[in-house]
Write a structure and sequence with these properties.
The chain contains five helices and 16 strands. It is an alpha+beta fold and 281 residues long. The strands form six sheets. A four-stranded mixed sheet has the order 7-11-8-9. The protein has a three-stranded mixed sheet with strand order 2-5-3, covered by helices on one side. A three-stranded mixed sheet has the order 13-16-14, with helices on one face.
Length: 281
C-alpha cells in the first residue's frame, strides 16, 4: 500500500494564503475594524460635540437678573453659575463684575460660565474705636480705610481747631465729651457724621456767669452775648423740665475778667430748682 505524499511547507503556506477561507477572514476583520472605528468616532463626536464651539457672551456690567433673562430668551448653549461675590460701594448691586471664560472666548456646548457679582447686601464691619478730641483729618482717613464714609456735618468754634467734638451714626451720638465709644457693627459704606471744632478769628471774650440762670437764659447768654458754644449738659435726677432747670455749676467756672476764645465750649450742670445761694427771682 503506497503512502500519500504531502506537499512541502512553502507550498502549503502558498495554498493557505490563496485560499477563499483566508481572504474571507481578512475581509471580515477589515469590515469589523471599519465598523468599530465609525462607531467610536460617532461616540466621541456625540460626547464632546467635536469641532462645535460658540462665542462666550459678555455679561460684565449686566445685572444678574438680566443675564438669566437673556440666557432663557436666546437659548444659550452655556450654563450660568454664580461662584463668588464682593461688595464695591460705587458699583450697582447685583451686577456682574467678572466672568470665566472671558467674553468673546470660544467654548464648547454646555460649558458653565462662572460669574462674580457685586453683592446685594453690604457686609457688616466693625466700626473702629473713635475718641473725643482726636484730629479729624487722621480720623477720616482711618474710617475710610475701614470702608466707612466720614462726613463733616457741623463745625463749631472752639479750641483746638480740627478736633472731634461729636461723632454720630444715623443721628445717634456715638462719641462726645460725655459719651464713650462702644464697639458696634454697621454695613460697609455707612456714613459716620462728624462735628468738628474750628478756630474763630474774632479773638477772645469773657467767661459768662451762668450759675443761677435757667437753661434757656444760659443758652441765650452763651450764643448772643459771648459767642460761645454749649458743651456737655449734666442733668441730675430732679430735672423734669430742662428748659426751666437751673445751672448750679459750669466749667470753666466764672471769673471776672477771665478771657476765653470765642467759639469755645462751656459745660453746664442742671438741677430743677434754683440753688440755695441764688438771689430770689
Amino acid at each position: 500500500m503506497s503512502e500519500e505524499i504531502k506537499p512541502g511547507l512553502p507550498k502549503r503556506i502558498f495554498l493557505f494564503l490563496t485560499s477563499w477561507i483566508f481572504w474571507r477572514n481578512i475581509l471580515m476583520m477589515v469590515a469589523v475594524s471599519v465598523i468599530m472605528y465609525f462607531m467610536l468616532f460617532q461616540m466621541l463626536k456625540c460626547g464632546t460635540n467635536h469641532k462645535q464651539s460658540y462665542e462666550v457672551p459678555n455679561f460684565v456690567g449686566m445685572p444678574l437678573d438680566d443675564v438669566l433673562d437673556e440666557a432663557d430668551k436666546r437659548g444659550f448653549h452655556f450654563n450660568i453659575e454664580v461662584t463668588d461675590s464682593m461688595f464695591i460701594k460705587d458699583q450697582r448691586r447685583g451686577i456682574v463684575l467678572s466672568q470665566t471664560p472671558d467674553p468673546e472666548a470660544r467654548a464648547k456646548d454646555d460649558r458653565t460660565i462662572y460669574l462674580t457679582i457685586n453683592s446685594f447686601t453690604p457686609p457688616q464691619i466693625d466700626v473702629p474705636p473713635i475718641k473725643y478730641g482726636v484730629p479729624v483729618k487722621n480720623l477720616m482717613s482711618r474710617l475710610e480705610g475701614f470702608g466707612l464714609v466720614p462726613v463733616i456735618v457741623e463745625k463749631r468754634f472752639g479750641y483746638p481747631p480740627g478736633t472731634l467734638v461729636e461723632a454720630k451714626y444715623n443721628g445717634k451720638v456715638i462719641v462726645s465729651r460725655n459719651v464713650e465709644f462702644k464697639p458696634f457693627q454697621v454695613p460697609s459704606g455707612s456714613k459716620i457724621e462728624l462735628v468738628v471744632l474750628e478756630e474763630s478769628n474774632a479773638g477772645n471774650t469773657d467767661i459768662p456767669d451762668l450759675v443761677c440762670k435757667t437753661y434757656s437764659e444760659a443758652m441765650f447768654q452763651l450764643k448772643s452775648g459771648h459767642q460761645l458754644s454749649l458743651g456737655s449738659i449734666s442733668i441730675d435726677a430732679s430735672v423734669k423740665d430742662t428748659a426751666n432747670a437751673f445751672v448750679w455749676r459750669q466749667l470753666p467756672p466764672y471769673e471776672p475778667g477771665r478771657p476765653i476764645r470765642i467759639g469755645e465750649q462751656i459745660d453746664i450742670f442742671l438741677t430743677q430748682n434754683p440753688p440755695t445761694n441764688c438771689p430770689s427771682r
